[in-house]
Every structure is written in structure tokens, then in C-alpha cells.
Amino acid sequence: MHAHELVDWIADYLENIEEYPVKSQLKPGEVYDKLPLQMPQEGEAFAKIMQDFNEFILPGVTHWQSPNFFAYFPANSSYASLLGEMLTSAMGAQCMKWETSPAATELEQKVMEWLKVLLGLPEKWHGVIQDTASTSSLVAVLTAREYYTDYSINKHGFGTWGSFRIYCSDEAHSSIEKAVRIAGFGSENLVKIETDEAFQLKPEALLSAITEDKNNNRQPLCVVATIGTTGTTAVDPLKEIGKICTDYDIWFHIDAAFAGSAMILPEYRWMNKGLNYADSFVFNPHKWLFTNFDCSAYYAKDKQALTKTFQLIPEYLKTRADKEVNNYSDWGIQLGRRFRALKLWFVLRSFGKRGLQDKIRFHISIAKDLEERINDTSDFEMLAPRTVSLLCFRYHPAGIHDENELNRINEGLLHEVNATGTIYITHTKLNGKYAIRMVTGQTNVEPHHVERAWDLIREISGKIA
Ligand SMILES: *Cc1c(COP(=O)(O)O)cnc(C)c1O
Questions:
Q1: Is 95 helix (H, G, I), strand (E, B) or coil?
Q2: What is the position in ligand 1's atom list of the atom closest to the CA of 256?
Q3: Nearest in space to 185 (alpha carbons), one of 169, 167, 217, 163
Q4: Please, what are the averages of pLDDT over each run of 10 residues along the chain (465 residues)?
Q5: Pocket test for ligand 1, best of 134, 138, 139 (most atoms within 8 A of CB)
Q6: Ligand 1 contact, 73 CB (< 6 A)
């Protein structure tokens, strides 16, 4: 009944999104304190709920779909995705098994095959949609654990097994350490391998860590490499790492959460080199492929290893079709699954390969233009090489050499910029240096947004030091 009204609201919101402060300017507790102590006794009118939404909730929202959002990595969306998601939510289907919605399973299989070709992934891989990259990497680590113990830890617990080692670079995402904790290995058994000056994992350091562990009777189990680290979008040398994994019979997982989307461009196909060594791979269409959160594409080389790790079928979940179909609840952690393939299908069809490529290429070109400007500005400097659409830089006024002071200045700059509400940027630390991170990957970002952001950063930097 109110759906038409709401769709109008959504259309107006997205059209006027630049009028809101990108980053919510509220303080902790402000939303909570405005909400009543108790839920209503009787149902309330839709108009009243919407009014409170506008008044209490909206000011506490950070607008991720604003083209002035340059923070973290984008969680971007598009009209196609949003409309697909509306249908998903209208049908409210629970897509745990083939039988509980055959179209959901078969569409998922199809779009994952399309994506595989789009990114140039190995033909024999099997794809499934997970909620997030964090879950996908956990699924990878758990599969590795079971595969190399003949599926015995699932049954008996760790028992006498207990000296497994997992490796990733010191720039890998925190979700890897979380996965290692949850899988029962313990953070101490995650070996963080040092990176080179371009923040890429050093294969020789990996090799020596593995040999040292073997000499000490520890079992190297899994290596996680990253295509596009969160700090700087560095790409680890997959081929060298893959060869080491093959030589030592170690599971090789690749986390391409954000930058994986660039693999749809022929000029970024170099990122695929060494993929054939991988046992599992994840990238997030919900980051940079215009499909709204959540939608994480997970690929496994060995489908049996995956389902043997996760399949568990009580009587009430048995169906006649089980032997003939994919039941995706056997391919990961959750039983209940949303119909996520639908929005992805809407996106892939309405953009087409060309449309997706044009968008990603455009985002990268905007980043490249800004990189040139930064390099041409004497009191700013890049702190890491640019790979795709992320820039890491800092303000470095002449005459200031103390690193702590530079860190303080840049932290101040970042917060003052964000306090304007005009744009939203975030930071990281690179070799102890406070770096401003700016990503030009929001669906609707245009050069004039980036120009205005750059002008604002420079203007405020001039007032700071
Ligand atoms: C963002 C990111 C993740 C986490 O993604 P989620 O889908 O939010 O779990 C993992 N790895 C890398 C490299 C990332 O950039």
C-alpha cells in the first residue's frame, strides 16, 4: 500500500543524496537517546514511522551511495541491484536448498559461471555466493583444515592434531586472523610474512618461514595471498606463492575482495597470473561491482572438499533431488540463504560486460588523474604505489620532518575534512606513517566530485600548518 510512496522516497533520496552530509555528524548515543524506552503497545501508522525515520534515523546514516564517499572501500550499489534486491525482499524466499526455490539455486550457478568468465578465472572452479569475504575466507580455512586431516577434525576435534600453520602477509586483512581464530588454530599460528617496499608479500620470506616450521615439526596448512590489500591495494606475487604451495602441498587461498573487480578489464588480467595454483578465491561484487551489500563471490577448485566439510543433512532437510542438484547450504556456513543471485543477475544484465568495464575503467582513470595532481603538488606526497582506484597520500609541508608531527597534522586534516560533511575519507598507517586513503570507486563518482574533494583537502591543509 505504501510501496509506491516508498519508491518515490527512494528515488528522491538517491537523486538528492549529495545534499546530505556524507559522514553522519552525530555523536555516540544521539540516536539511541531519541528513541522511546519501549516499543509501542499498538501498531502505529506508516506515516508516523516514516516521519520518525526521517527525523531520528536518517541523520544517523552515513551515505555510502554518495559520489562524495571516498572512504574505506566502497560498498556500492546501482539502480539495477537495488531493484533486484527489492524483488528478493518481496518474495522473501529462503534459498537453503534447491527445492526451497529451484530458480535461486540455478540462477546462482549461472551467474557464478558468468562471473568466472568475466574475470578470467580458471574454468574448472565452482562458484557460490557467500555473505562476505570474511565468511568466504573462513570457509576456505575450514575446508583446508578438513581436507588435510581427512575430514577428521569435524568429527573428533583437534585431538592430537595441533601444530598447523597459516601464512599471510603483514598487510593481509584482519578477517584472515579472525578466520584462523574461529577455525581453532589460534592467532599465534598465523604467520605474518613481511612485505617489500610495494607492500607485497616476499615469497622468499614465505619459503623460509615454511621450511623453519617444517623443521620444527609444525604443519604448514594454508597460505592466503591478497589481490589488492586493504591498506594500499598491493597485489601479492601469486605465481611464486602458488609454486611454493604446490611444492609443499599447502592450501592456497586468494583474497581479492575489492580489487578482484578490476580483473574484468583486459589491461588488469596480469592480476590473474598464478590463479591456476589456487584452491580457493574470493572477491566481493558488493564492493566494486555495483551490487549492493551483501554479495561475496567464492570459488573453490575442489567442490567435494567443500561439501564434505560443510554438508550435514538431518532427516527434515532431506529431499528427493539431493543427488542431482547443488544445495548451496552445503557449500558454506549458513543453512538459511538469501536470494542474492537475483540482484547480481540484474546488474550483470543491465550493465553488460561493456558497461561494467567502462565503469571500472573510468574509476581507475579518475584515480590516475588525481594521482598526477598529488605528484604535481609539492606539499603532498604519495605513500604507496597506486594499483587501481585507491590513493594513499599525505600532506607534507616543507620544513617539517618529524614523523610524529606529520602524523598529527594528517590526522587533524582528515578529521577536519570529514567534519565538513562534504566528503568522507579514511586513513591507514604505512610503515608508521599516517596515510590518507581515498578511493574513487563509488558507482556514481565523476571527475568534478574528485576535483572538489581535492580542493577541499588542500584548502583545509593550508589552514592547519
Ligand atoms: C574489505 C575486505 C575484506 C572484508 O570484506 P567483507 O566482505 O566485509 O568481509 C577482506 N579482505 C580484503 C582484502 C578487503 O579489502
A1: coil
A2: 13
A3: 163
A4: 92 96 95 96 96 96 98 97 97 95 97 98 98 98 98 94 94 98 97 98 98 97 98 98 98 98 97 97 98 98 98 89 93 97 98 98 98 97 97 96 97 97 97 97 98 97 86
A5: 134
A6: yes
